[in-house]
Amino acid sequence: MRRMAPWLLAAFPGAMVVAAAAAGWVPQARDLPTYFVPLRYYTGLVLSGHRAPFWNPQVGCGEPFFANPQSGLLYPPAWFAAVLPSEVAVGVEVGVHLLVLALGCYRLARRLGAPPALAGGAGLACACAGPVASAAGVLNNLETLAWLPWMWEAAAAGSLAGVAATTALAWLGAEPTLTAVGAGVALALAPHRRTVGGVALAGCAVAVQVLPFVFWVAGGDRGPGSAAQGAVAPLPLASLWRLVVPAPLPAGASAFLENLALPVWAVLLGLVALQERGTVRRRLAVCGWALALAAVLPALPLGEVAWRWATAGLVRHPLRLLFPATLALIVAAAACPRRTSRMLAGALGGGGALVALAGGASPLAALLGGAAVVAVVGGVAPTAGVVAGAVALLPSAAASLHLRPAAPTPVAPCLEAQQAAARVYLVEPSQRQAAWVAAGWPERGHALGWGYTPLLDGRNTARTFAPLQSRRLAAHLEAADRGPTGRWWLDALGADLVLSAGGVRGFPEGCASRGMVAQPNPGAWPLTFVAIAIPAPGEAPVKVGEVVSAVVGKDSAEWEVVVGEGGGVLVRLATPDPGWRFTVDGQAVPVRQGSGILHGVAVPAGRHRVRASYRPPGFGVGLLITVLGCGVLMGGVWRRW
Question: Would residue 627 count as lying in a domain?
Answer without folding.
Answer: no
